[in-house]
Specification:
Number of domains: 4
Low-confidence stretches: none
Number of helices: 13
Shape: extended
Largest sheet: 4 strands, antiparallel
Structural class: alpha+beta
Helix content: 40-55%
Number of strands: 11
Mean pLDDT: 84
Order of helices and strands: EEEHHEHEEHHEEHEHHHHHHEEH
Length: about 375
Amino acid sequence: MHIEAVPNRGSHPTILLRQSYRQGKRVRKRTLANLTRLPPDVIETLKRALRGEKLVPAGQAFAIERSTPHGHVKAILGTIRRLVEAEELQLSLFDKQDLAEISSDQFRGEQLVACFNPLLADERARKRREPLAATEEKLQSIARQVARRTKTPLLTDEIALKVGKVINRHKMGKHFGLHIEDGVFRWERNEASIEREAALDGIYVIRTSEPKKRLSAEDTVRSYKNLAQVEQVFRCLKGIDIRVRPIYHRDDLRVRAHLFLCLLAYYVEWHMRRALGSVLFDDEELTANRPARDPVAKAKPSASARRKKTQRNTPDGLPVQSFDTLLAELGTLCRNRCRIQADPSGQTFTQDTRPTPLHAHILELLGV
């Protein structure tokens, strides 16, 4: 058996699985399967198998002792406590600064940047304080219910079932100590656990395999925060702007073409936003100010962005637009085919919409 590519005029070749056999003095071929729809890597694997090569799964060929992505920037959230317990991260570093470079034997050959954000600390404290209060209220209700049942006391399993629902609801079980017996239920806060977690509020560590000479600590944090732009792209693609879904195609090439057109549409939108920044609410100085501002602190809008939001007019007196309202405004530019109502059988003529000063300014910025 062998795999053969049969050329087609004006289209991709057909990939066929064929078998050769001898009929008298002639060698003939029979087609066993059409492999055109298979991915190229699968077809290449079949070719190698038919040539007699021994194929070994990757899991049997080698074992991964440790995986270190190259050129990555990643935030570590689950290992901060281990770094503190190993005394590799000193919380006193953030008394006078919000960024510190640290090293750890747990991440050899990698750069670690510890950051402290007071706004994030307040948010984490709030997200812990509110579930704690809600859990306490429900545990107190269960304790009163258990105390009332004197004639037929609640069994241990019944109390544990009620308490488990409360603990699993808010995920605060690590901050409470529980004592459950037949007809007895007591609880208290684990203040030591709460204090240990509160000490880490607002702290996050970013790791990268890039050397310091190529990527400084400040640029490492900025690179990680740039992931927000990637998230914005996905929101735009999956939201009401471009609507990459639903996909009504089933052929691989058509699905790829659909995704390519959606990415191309976002590429056009990106360039339009850059060219029309003066008439949009977008901060025109954001990109220029990013390398100079504090990489950890919350970004503040520039003076020009604040002026546009308050005055809602450009220096030329034109109304500032969002991207959606700007597209709706451009949608009023059209070419109308008209006919005189008094003469229904008369000839038609075309009439173009007269551009407004805003239309003219937008077209000038786009170079149209």
